[in-house]
């Protein structure tokens, strides 16, 4: 007779304990991070915007109010005489025209030479193209001061001294390495199939450059122009070295006209002149800043 072994029923498995909720702590941490980020952004904006606001308000203050009161206080009286005096004291209109000529000329030379050089290095390619590109990039670290004396001597020999070209050529030359780098970085992500299809259709390098590469480079062109225009518009070292006559002075040199005898400076008229010269750059930057950001990102992301 077989003995039957009785086994005790298995104990029921206790229900799983729910994991402790961490959502409130995480949500609180995210709120703190967002608050700190917002405060940081607001602080940066205030630091950047406050000088411009102060400059604009001071340009409308009377000379007596600025000299006798707190220069950082709100103006008690507003006047437009500072702007009329700014144009009367110095050749502000002529200075703006000269800066515009130099900026447009140098920017055009930078874009044309930079695009062609980058197209030859990145798209067409040739033996030692990488070495040539490295030489262009080395130009970024070359200080402009070492070229002042040799350029002054050469300009005086060939008759370019005291001309617009004496400023346009070196400004474009020293900005060319960065332009080549930006254009090359963008051309790297243009699909090669587009160039191959155009070649099969009988398009030569000039047609490929004009009908494919140039239209696709619009954002990069805007980026190169805006980045370099700021430095060209505010250039002082080349203008001060190569310009000898008052008729060719750019804005940075023209602002010296507001310093009178014995170092006396008409500050309110100077601030009005600075407002006139800064406004065009601000307007252009505000209108084209989105295209500039897209141009900077085009070399970093493929698409």
Automatic annotation (TrEMBL):
The lineage's top-level taxon is Bacteria
Q: Which residues form the ABC transmembrane type-1 domain?
A: 96-288
* Keywords, alphabetical: Cell membrane, Membrane, Transmembrane, Transmembrane helix, Transport
Q: Indicate the transmembrane segments per the record.
A: 35-57, 100-124, 131-153, 165-187, 208-233, 267-288
Which subcellular locations apply to this protein? Cell membrane
Keyword Magnesium in record: no
Annotated GO CC locations: plasma membrane
Keyword presence, Cell membrane: yes
Query: Per the annotation, which location comes first and is thus the protein's main one?
Result: membrane
CDD domains linked:
TM_PBP2
Residues covered by region (Disordered): 1-25
* Classification via InterPro entries: BP-dep_ABC_trans_perm, MetI-like, MetI-like_sf
- Biased amino acid composition, Low complexity: 1-10
**Bilayer topology:** Multi-pass membrane protein
The entry's protein name is Carbohydrate ABC transporter permease
């Amino acid at each position: 007779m077989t003995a039957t072994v009785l086994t005790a029923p298995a104990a029921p498995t206790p229900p799983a304990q729910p994991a402790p909720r961490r959502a409130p702590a995480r949500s609180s941490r995210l709120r703190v991070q967002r608050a700190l980020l917002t405060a940081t952004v607001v602080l940066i904006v205030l630091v950047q915007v406050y000088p411009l606001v102060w400059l604009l308000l001071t340009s409308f203050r009377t000379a007596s109010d600025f000299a006798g009161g707190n220069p950082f206080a709100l103006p008690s009286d507003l006047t437009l005489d500072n702007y009329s005096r700014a144009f009367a004291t110095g050749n502000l209109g002529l200075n703006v025209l000269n800066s515009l000529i130099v900026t447009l000329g140098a920017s055009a030379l930078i874009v044309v030479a930079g695009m062609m050089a980058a197209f030859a290095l990145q798209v067409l390619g040739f033996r030692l193209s990488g070495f040539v590109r490295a030489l262009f990039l080395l130009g970024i670290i070359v200080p402009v001061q070492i070229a002042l004396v040799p350029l002054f001597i050469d300009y005086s020999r060939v008759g370019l001294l005291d001309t617009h070209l004496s400023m346009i050529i070196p400004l474009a030359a020293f900005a060319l390495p960065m332009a080549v780098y930006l254009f090359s970085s963008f051309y790297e992500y243009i699909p090669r199939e587009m160039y191959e299809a155009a070649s099969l259709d009988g398009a030569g390098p000039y047609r490929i450059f004009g009908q494919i590469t140039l239209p696709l480079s619009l954002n990069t062109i805007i980026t190169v122009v805006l980045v370099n225009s700021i430095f060209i518009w505010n250039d002082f070292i080349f203008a001060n070295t190569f310009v000898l006559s008052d008729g060719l002075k750019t804005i940075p040199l023209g602002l010296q006209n507001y310093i009178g005898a014995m170092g006396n400076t008409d500050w309110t008229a100077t601030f009005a002149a600075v407002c006139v010269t800064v406004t065009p750059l601000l307007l252009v930057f505000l209108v084209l800043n989105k295209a500039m950001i897209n141009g900077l990102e085009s070399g970093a992301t493929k698409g």
